[in-house]
Amino acid sequence: MSETPAASPAAETDQQSTVRRGAAYDSVFLRAARREPVPYTPVWFMRQAGRSLPEYLKVREGIPMLDSCMRPELVKEITLQPVRRHDVDAAIFFSDIVVPLKAVGIDVDIKPGVGPVIADPIRTVEDLQRLRPLEPDDMPYITEAVGLLVDELGGTPLIGFAGAPFTLASYLVEGGPSKSHEKTKAMMYGAPELWAGLVDRLAAITSAFLKIQIEAGASAVQLFDSWVGALAPDDYRRSVMPASTKVFEAVADYGVPRIHFGVGTGELLGLMGQAGADVVGVDWRVPLNVAADRVGPDKGLQGNLDPAVLYAPTHVVETKAREVLHAAAALGDSGHIFNLGHGVMPTMDPDALTRLVAFVHEASAR
Ligand code: 1CP
User: Fold this and answer.
1) CB 291 within 8 A of CB 283
2) Of 352, 334, 320, whose CA–CA distance to 45 is shortest?
3) Is the CB of 161 inside a 6 Å radius of any atom of ligand 1?
4) pTM higher than 0.90, yes or no?
5) Active-site residue list
6) Tell me, what's the pLDDT at 207?
7) Terminal Cα distance for the chain, rounded
8) pLDDT below 70 — which residues of the chain?
9) What's the confidence (pLDDT) of residue 28?
10) What is the pLDDT of residue 14?
11) Under 8 Å CB-to-CB from 175, ≥6 apart: which residues?
12) Rounded CA gap, 283 and 100, in Å?
């Protein structure tokens, strides 16, 4: 990380922002995402900023989750914590997929131990009218936090992110976390026009959220479609993929790598490869050499150690991590970003993650 003092984001010119974005351009993470040769495999962890770290629990004490996302200095500190601790190759911006929904006026709260809860779910054409477009001025705190972070991170890239239309729609329609997504699917199957209107509005909100982060200096973005694995391929292709493709197209001109992730997506990997991302995230159920065949040529892959492996002894973690690296050799010399198959769990030992980063760097050195 750079020692340079943070410049005031308000005083920043477009040119400075371009220069600052440039600082991470040759980082191992961005090179791998562009499928350029790398000296070792880069690694970061989904949900690396958060509940597994005692220093996170300390700074969050007494501050509700969504309030914390609106405090730039706090967002900066939480985003940097795992970078300092684990020596990961990228920072993921500390926020949440529902933050832009709150910014457009949806009554959403993140309840501890539950997740996002929506006071008035969206289930009718009238409800849909409440989902207005997201304007850059709706989120000055995001622009400020990204600016502070990019100054501090120097050559370490910052990954911006957003929720994909299907996963956001699930929270909005169900009213909270759901295992079966039955109300969401009922709308998708039973009211296709309403559904199309919903995912279209969400695609616009998500595109705007990603643009805000990229324009402030994020040098890669990840679209989280965490729950899309609940769909059959034909339904995904018909009812969801066009909205996700709109998001990737909306940010294509910035030239920053676009990562696309979901859980349980083994049967969807081919379509996700076509949806428009540069890198496809894979959970632990499909070995990366098989995923490479399904996703198709010219795409990077991210993943895919089973997060639960981290609870096993170190030598087992290393054996399993080596298997992931071995499977990724199918991609050739580049194009693999090491990650877990899903997020860091709250009870995980942070030291096991630090050891894993060092191991991946060492075992993959070329
Ligand atoms: O009180 C707390 O500490 C709240 C826990 C928490 C945290 C740390 C939530 C609530 N969100 C976050 C931060 C967060 N969420 C990040 C930050 C950066 C990082 O990864 O380190 C990111 C990228 C997200 C994205 C997110 N939020 C996703 C997609 C990623 C994934 O894990 O699949 C999803 C599905 C959410 C919704 C959400 N927010 C919070 C929870 C507990 C959930 C999941 C609830 C559910 O099971 O449906």
Assistant:
1) no
2) 352
3) yes
4) yes
5) 47, 51, 60, 96, 171
6) 98
7) 24
8) 1-21
9) 98
10) 55
11) 117, 118, 121
12) 26
Where do we find the tokens 């832009």?
100
Q: How many residues does the chain have?
A: 366
Phi, psi values for residue 34, rounded to 5°: -90, 5
Q: What CA–CA distance (Å, rounded) separates 161 from 222?
A: 5
Ligand 1 centroid distance, CA of 185 (Å): 22
Query: Max CA-CA distance within the chain?
Result: 58
- Those residues whose C-beta lies under 8 Å from the C-beta of residue 155, and which sit 6 or more positions away, are 2, 23, 24, 26, 27
Task: Render 205-216 in DSSP notation, one character per residue.
Answer: HHHHHHHHHHHH
Domains by residue range for the chain, with CATH: 43-280 (3.20.20.210)
Q: What is the pLDDT of residues 334-366, one digit of tens each?
A: 899 999 999 999 999 999 999 999 999 999 999
> Which residue owns the Cα nearest ligand 1 atom 38?
115
Neighbours of 37 (CB within 10 A): 11
Could you read off the pLDDT of 220-278 as tens digits, one per residue? 999 999 999 999 999 999 999 999 999 999 999 999 999 999 999 999 999 999 999 99
- For ligand 1, atom 17, the nearest C-alpha belongs to 94
Alpha-carbon 102 to chain mean position: 18
Cβ–ligand 1 contact at 94 (below 6 Å)? yes
- Which residue do the tokens 């034909």 mark? 234
d(CA 139, CA 137): 5
